[in-house]
Amino acid sequence: MSEARSKPLSLQELPLLNQEIAALVRAGVPLESGLAMAGASGGGAQEVLMLRLAQRLREGHSFADALHSEGGDLPRMYRAVVEAGARMGRLPEALESLATFAQQTLQLRRRIDLALMYPALVLLMAGVLFAWLVAFWVPRLSDAFFWLQVPETNWVRRLVWLQQHLWSWSWIIPAGVFVLGGWWWFSTRGRYGLKGTTETTTWSAFRVLPGISSIVANFRRANFCDLLAMLLDHQVPLPEAAMLAAEAAGDRSLRRVASRIADGVRAGNSLANCLAVGRELPPFVSWMLICGERQGTLISTLRQVAEVLRQRAAADSDWLRIMLPTVLVVGVGGTAVLAYALAVFVPMSQLLRALGEFSP
User: Fold this and answer.
1) Mean pLDDT of the 160-177 span
2) Which of 197, 306, 347, 356 is the most exposed place for a label (fewest CB within 10 A)?
């Protein structure tokens, strides 16, 4: 039979899929029948994936094999955690841990989106209002110069030119806002955690904003520590777990750290020796991981470090959401007020001055 295909699951859909599968396992419902019933309730990516998994389970495949056959529709790290949980008989716990991680990822994703939404709206409204001002004010201004028989100044002629060519420039700011907003949405959708991304393409244009670099760096490090703890908790070997966590976190520097950890552990070195080389991780993070290894509490230490880093990222995103409006008032808002003043008060003062010169 031909299998229905769908787009890969997003971070919004992963927690729902995990929760439904975990509920089926805890309730003792056979996965093949439970997934088939749940998948028949809709036609989205989540439901289509459930139907494909149910079909493979009916064909005699294990749940781990069914997940592995999905390839790109499920992130590699996701499949590794679920497969490890299934092998150890802890599938519900593995699914719930992934659901919690995806929900935390979405929460911080929304913080960053909200921090960038206000500047976009201010810029959009400023551009639209200036175009409206030119469209309705400049013709009346030109008529006033004409009926009062006052020659138009160079400034008024420039405004008239803007009014006559309104459709050639008025669309630039709104189109730019929508294009940048759409690019931001689709380039970062689902890429804050499980799928990974390249460091340069998505974030380079936004590193000029204050706080963005620290937010992204702390959040990726938190993801790396959280995912590494999750994999180690499900008995995935440290070298493989480090590489999977770094790949899922989507950061080149973390991949270099993971590669050193994997190569060093396979060579018989301790985690402290692996982290002693390079400065990709903050000293606090490296020191905490070294202490966790020495005390035999690496998994809990990784989760504590992830929580601290995630709180720092959340605090930075809150700061960004507070500071950006202030910067906009001075920048975009001040520029808009200046443009309105130049379009209204300068020609009016020129008109009044000309009338005074012509009056007897």
Assistant:
1) 89
2) 356
